[in-house]
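Hi L.,

You mentioned the student needs an example of a multi-chain input paired with its predicted structure. This one should do, with 323 residues in total across all chains.
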Amino acid sequence: METQEMIREGHFITREEAEEILRLPDSELAALMGAANALRLRYKGKKVSIQLLTNVRSGGCSQDCAYCAQSCVSGADIEKYRFVRDEKLYGDDKLVSEHHLARHCIGLSGISFSDGEIEELAGRIRKMKENGTHICCSIGFLTEPQAIMLKEAGLDRINHNLNSGRNFYPQICSTHTYEQRLENIRMLKRLGFELCCGGIVGMGESAGDIADMLCDVREISPESVPINFLLPIKGTRLADRDISSLTYEYCMKVLCLARLMIPEADIRCAAGREVYFRGHEAELLSVVDSVFAAGYLTAGGQGIEDTKKLIRDLGYEPEVESD
Ligand code: SF4
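Structure written out for the whole complex:
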């Protein structure tokens, strides 16, 4: 199919077309970005939401996700703790509130939790909600009663990524399945959580795998879609992964495709923004409407003030949700 026809607004992109879009020659990138930008402006205007991420539990995870520094099979040199100091957690939440950032994202390593641990977390969420911050929690598999406990504590959103395409998933993780992830997400959706669901690009998957993943994300219809670009971490199985395929053009095609397929969601350029889009920040914001400031779970990033300044300098407005 002709590119113009495939990216025309209102056209439902099939799985095959999604893959075709990722394989378009770079000479078609401008047309693709034009279509993605029109949808960005229609659904998000000039707003950019900024998230701050706190790693609440770090390291010691029983799972073997190839990219993750917190996995038990990773030898990455990271700080490990069971619960972040209250001072740090509440301090970060205050920062989110004072800087009027869109959301405080909190992440916990691990795949399953005891009811006691969830109750402990719920207590901290209740306290942070007193600041009025919008909170999203990235957490492994929850039982339904645990998810209800967090909902009753005021948790607004849960992040649970698909990470990659169904067929590729066994190559990056052998300790749980793609289907388990989907089931967990379906349960959270049934309970009425806002959802954040995306993946990681650059782990050795094909364009078809990314197309598969985005088709499943579209079906989930989450409020936000974080796209991470692999930052190989020393000590993890993907430490020496060849990332030469992660050109600016390819990364941009993935983000444009996410915008075309799930246009009304927040499309977030998460990990890798400062590396793969350096010097292309204006182009990036013409497609995505959401970024992290002050780093990722185990990797650093651009500070809050610098991120806000960049957004304003490029003619966009940091979104204000917390007050
Ligand atoms: S389940 Fe989460 S914390 Fe554990 S290894 Fe996988 S990505 Fe890392």
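You could point out the following to them. The two ends are 48 Å apart (CA to CA). The chain is about 40% helix and 15% strand.

Best wishes,
N.
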